[in-house]
């Protein structure tokens, strides 16, 4: 067999063929690269790669002190890739400092994270690492927890057989924050009633109503509200447990038995109606009992039947101002019958104040319910916020606009001065502006929260403005500070002379003339 020339052999075969197996050598001889001229160094590299030999020897790794300490005990595991060596390599690599990626690599390989997505990701990671406690979960709820939920939490942390726990639990049945708001809407019309000057002890003094009657009015109203709220909780603990806002109520958590809640409701209702009957008048007592029936017997079951429940609830909210008006009117009436107190002369102011509270509840509740519309739907409550979201916004806007003619009517019938029309229009305009945003955006983009807080501030501001601009209030204040005008003194003296000179004239006629 003829030997190949040295030059051709140098192109085809490596110098040291003893380290290459026969199979790799044949594969290399059949490849097209075998007949191409290339350097001996490149031949060695190709043969080494084909043979699977690593160019990293033991001396290469020993140059790193950390790796030498890690793998100095065995080199076979490093070569063969045993599990122990892989774990050691991973641990050593984690300890080594990593080089910061360049700006070019970051812009090309890693997409830039938007700020809001980064905040959302960090928030989710923090929640996964540290789940929120029940109290912090309630704090992040779109609606602030009511007083009943807070009192229930306090009651559950007290000793089981303590009197304080029992009183706190019963107090939570009354929904004290809601009851306090209703009492305020009752006392404001009581103070707005135009008391005749006949009740004034002197010509320069402001006429006033009975303080004792006011005490019976506020106490009876608060007890009637407590009875209605307790019955509301008693009738729907199953559905209260489905909503975050109501699942902390005492009957849901079984802090009190249904029998105990029923006895509490009956006791509060009986005492409340009796206080209104004997301390105020029968008409006001009838309105208090009617409110208990409408709220617990009509509004509560109707919530799962039709969206008309919102209108029934608005009627319930409009009755307390009428109660305050009839309580004041009963002290100035001639006969004191329900026809005179509700439909007699001067009763228009009470109905207008009731209409103000009736209209106010729609923008307030429609914005409030929109934030938890999914929970209302899950619990089966028929509310406009999820049944018909478009109508939900229209109804809120419609009744917000109704505030303007109601406030104008209070001035027209003589309850307030004409300045109340201008001042109330400012706050009513703010309410309408928020209602328009709520209607256009259908509750999104924070418009529901904006309308809710506008309604929270609207009611007390309007009530305070009405009491500050009550008809004749500033005239009496001026008269008390600087004395009665001279014309009034002369007129009052002439009346006294008339009484002395003409003893046959009826005194009641003279008194009626003074009132006119």
TrEMBL record:
GO terms for cellular component: mitochondrial membrane. It comes from Mytilinidion resinicola. It comes from the Eukaryota. CDD domains: PT_UbiA_Cox10. One of its GO terms (biological process) is heme A biosynthetic process. It is found in: Mitochondrion membrane. Keywords: Heme biosynthesis, Membrane, Mitochondrion, Transferase, Transit peptide, Transmembrane, Transmembrane helix. This is Protoheme IX farnesyltransferase, mitochondrial. InterPro entries: Protohaem_IX_farnesylTrfase, UbiA_prenyltransferase, UbiA_prenylTrfase_CS, UbiA_sf. Signal peptide: none annotated. Pfam families: UbiA. GO terms for molecular function: protoheme IX farnesyltransferase activity. Belongs to the UbiA prenyltransferase family. Residues 93-104 have a biased composition (Low complexity). It is a multi-pass membrane protein.
């Amino acid at each position: 067999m003829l030997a190949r020339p040295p030059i051709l052999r140098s192109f085809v075969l490596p110098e040291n063929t003893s380290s290459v197996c026969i199979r790799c050598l044949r594969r290399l001889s059949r490849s097209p690269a075998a007949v191409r001229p290339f350097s001996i160094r490149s031949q060695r590299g190709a043969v080494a790669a084909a043979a699977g030999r690593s160019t990293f020897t033991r001396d290469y790794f020993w140059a790193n002190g950390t790796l030498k300490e890690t793998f100095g005990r065995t080199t076979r595991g490093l070569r063969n890739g045993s599990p122990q060596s892989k774990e050691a390599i991973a641990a050593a690599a984690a300890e080594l400092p990593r080089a910061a990626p360049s700006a070019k690599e970051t812009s090309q390989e890693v997409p830039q994270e938007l700020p809001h997505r980064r905040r959302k990701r960090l928030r989710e990671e923090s929640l996964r690492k540290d789940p929120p406690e029940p109290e912090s979960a309630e704090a992040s709820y779109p609606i602030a927890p009511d007083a009943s939920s807070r009192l229930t939490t306090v009651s559950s942390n007290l000793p089981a057989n303590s009197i304080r726990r029992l009183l706190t639990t019963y107090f939570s049945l009354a929904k004290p924050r809601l009851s306090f708001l209703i009492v305020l809407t009752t006392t404001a019309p009581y103070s707005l009633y135009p008391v005749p000057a006949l009740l004034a002890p002197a010509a320069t003094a402001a006429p006033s109503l009975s303080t004792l009657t006011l005490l019976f009015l506020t106490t009876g109203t608060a007890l009637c509200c407590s009875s209605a709220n307790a019955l509301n909780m008693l009738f729907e603990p199953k559905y209260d447990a489905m909503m975050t806002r109501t699942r902390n109520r005492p009957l849901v958590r079984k802090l009190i038995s249904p029998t105990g809640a029923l006895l509490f409701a009956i006791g509060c209702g009986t005492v409340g109606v009796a206080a209104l009957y004997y301390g105020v008048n029968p008409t006001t007592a009838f309105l208090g009992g009617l409110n208990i029936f409408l709220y617990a017997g009509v509004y509560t079951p109707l919530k799962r039947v039709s969206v008309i429940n919102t209108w029934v609830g608005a009627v319930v909210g409009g009755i307390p101002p009428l109660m305050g008006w009839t309580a004041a009117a009963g002290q100035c009436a001639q006969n004191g019958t329900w026809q005179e107190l509700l439909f007699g002369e001067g009763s228009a102011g009470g109905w207008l104040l009731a209409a103000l509270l009736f209209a106010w509840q729609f923008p307030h509740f429609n914005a409030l319910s929109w934030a938890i519309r999914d929970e209302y739907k899950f619990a089966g409550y028929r509310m406009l916020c999820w049944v018909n979201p478009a109508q939900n916004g229209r109804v809120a806007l419609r009744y917000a606009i109704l505030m303007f003619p109601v406030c104008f009517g209070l001035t027209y019938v003589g309850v307030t001065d004409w300045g109340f029309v201008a001042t109330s229009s400012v706050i009513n305009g703010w309410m309408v502006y928020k209602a328009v945003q709520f209607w256009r955006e259908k509750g999104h983009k924070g418009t529901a929260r904006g309308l809710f807080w506008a309604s929270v501030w609207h009611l007390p501001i309007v009530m305070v403005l009405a009491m500050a601009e009550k008809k004749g209030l500033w005239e009496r204040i001026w008269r008390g500070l600087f004395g009665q005008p001279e014309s009034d003194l002369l007129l009052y003296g002439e009346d006294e002379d008339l009484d002395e000179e003409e003893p046959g004239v009826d005194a009641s006629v003279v008194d009626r003339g003074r009132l006119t």
